[in-house]
Write a structure and sequence with these properties.
By secondary structure, the protein is α/β, with parallel strands linked by helices. It folds into three domains: 1-103, Transcription Regulator spoIIAA; 104-291, Heat Shock Protein 90; 308-407. 44% of the residues lie in helices and 21% in strands. It has helices spanning 16-32, 50-67, 79-87, 90-94, 115-132, 139-157, 187-194, 201-208, 224-234, 282-285, 323-339, 357-379, 387-407; strands at residues 6-8, 13-14, 37-41, 47-48, 70-74, 109-112, 163-170, 175-182, 239-252, 255-275, 308-312, 344-348, 380-383. The longest helix has 23 residues, at 357-379.
Length: 408
């Protein structure tokens, strides 16, 4: 491989703007000059973002399939960035034959191919984000609703056998990024089949964002993208970007920006940005409708009475001896209680014979402080708990309540 085949990524960060620069270079190398061996040199990279790497993966996949292009990747010298690119599955997806592992780590990129794999993936993402942070009212409902709608569109409209999804949560910055991408026919192509007057790609995308507009009325009502845009519109700090073929539509800074794009993106890329600490009035976004509480029927409420959620503690971790595990489980419990404010959470201790006081305090002691003694007793129910675990639980909860009263 000679130097003319190599693309050196000489920026500290690889985001959408960096991707567009690389896309232009690839367009010239592959489509104009006919190169079939490309090296992407990320040696100097410090920060990697989903809105840079996911569209690059879609583009590389398209070039491999249509033009038999072989990609080689040089990973960053920076340890943190290199590990992130591997753990996020970027390396494995860019170079499928290079032997990089496919992981199921938090924040990783995943592929889905049908409704069964999509449902399984979304449930997995729900479990992971519940553990990573706590969320303002309406954020979780909005996340699940938008993710189902946007990813579901890939299966119905894209005309390809798979799509890509990544959900990234940054607890420290209270930020969530949701990206969904495919290498399909593109929104403009699908829309023009039903609405031939939408000539420009960017206008066709904007048309798809209107309520009731769909290229497949036999499959849907045209509310998926519209509702997602409405969620972002009423959410302070929310952003939505849609790139498809030669069109780009973005909602940011309280305005809808409609532009042409070149080189064309080979399919559709949707990027949703949410602030996890800012509430979302989802019923106002979704025409007065309130989706069923997320994470309840799908994960915890199948065999329970109305108004009761269920968590089997043994399914949440392999051991119950440290505060880090406890923090993840407490995050999940707090999110469940917030998402269903009138429901009781039943925690089943079947299979949990021992738990450390530090773990119990991190989960249940601190929950008692957050909920208060009455709230804790009325919203949390314990079943199948042995005498040892009950003694530990009673001790840490009483200690936290005493501590709270002493401070007051």
């Amino acid at each position: 491989m000679n130097a003319s085949n190599e693309i050196a990524i000489n920026w500290d960060r690889f985001d959408w703007q960096a991707f567009q620069k690389v896309q232009s270079i690839l367009f010239n190398l592959v489509e104009k000059q006919g190169y079939r061996d490309i090296r992407l040199d990320f040696s100097n990279l410090k920060l990697a973002f989903p809105n840079g790497f996911v569209p690059l993966i879609v583009l590389a996949e398209r070039y491999r399939q249509l033009s038999a292009v072989d990609f080689d990747v040089m990973l960053p010298n920076d340890d943190l960035c290199r590990n992130y690119i591997v753990d996020s599955n970027y390396a494995a997806c860019l170079c499928p034959d290079a032997g990089h592992p496919i992981t199921d780590k938090p924040n990783a990129l995943h592929r889905f191919s049908d409704d069964a794999s999509l449902n399984e993936l979304i449930n997995s993402q729900i479990h992971q984000i519940l553990e990573r942070a706590t969320y303002a009212q309406g954020v979780l409902q909005s996340f699940e609703w938008a993710l189902n709608e946007v990813a579901g569109n890939v299966l119905v409209h894209a005309g390809v056998d798979h799509g890509w999804m990544q959900v990234v949560v940054h607890p420290n910055t209270q930020h969530m990024a949701i990206v969904v991408a495919d290498g399909g026919v593109g929104i403009p192509t699908a829309i023009r089949e039903a609405f031939p007057s939408q000539v420009m790609d960017e206008d066709a995308i904007a048309h798809a964002l209107k309520e009731g507009i769909t290229s497949r009325p036999d499959f849907g009502q045209g509310k998926g993208l519209t509702g997602t845009l409405q969620i972002v519109k009423i959410h302070q700090g929310g952003r939505l970007s849609i790139h498809s073929l030669k069109g780009r539509v973005e909602w940011k800074n309280d305005r809808l920006d409609i532009k042409g794009d070149f080189p064309p993106f080979p399919g559709t890329f949707v990027d949703i940005q949410l602030n996890t600490a800012v509430p979302i009035e989802i019923e106002r976004a979704l025409w007065g409708d309130v989706p069923a509480y997320p994470f309840n029927d799908a994960l915890y409420g199948k065999d329970t009475a109305v108004g009761v959620m269920r968590m089997k503690l043994a399914d949440e971790a392999v051991g119950f001896g440290n505060r880090l595990t406890g923090l993840k489980i407490r995050n999940k419990i707090e999110n469940l209680l917030a998402a269903a404010p009138n429901d009781v959470l039943e925690i089943d201790f079947t299979g949990v014979d021992l738990m450390a006081s530090s773990f119990a305090d991190e989960v249940f002691g601190k929950l008692a402080l957050v909920l208060g003694f009455v709230g804790f007793g009325s919203r949390i129910r314990f079943v199948n708990i042995n005498r040892f675990c009950r003694g530990i639980l009673d001790d840490v909860v009483q200690s936290r309540i005493i501590q709270s009263h002493a401070k007051k």
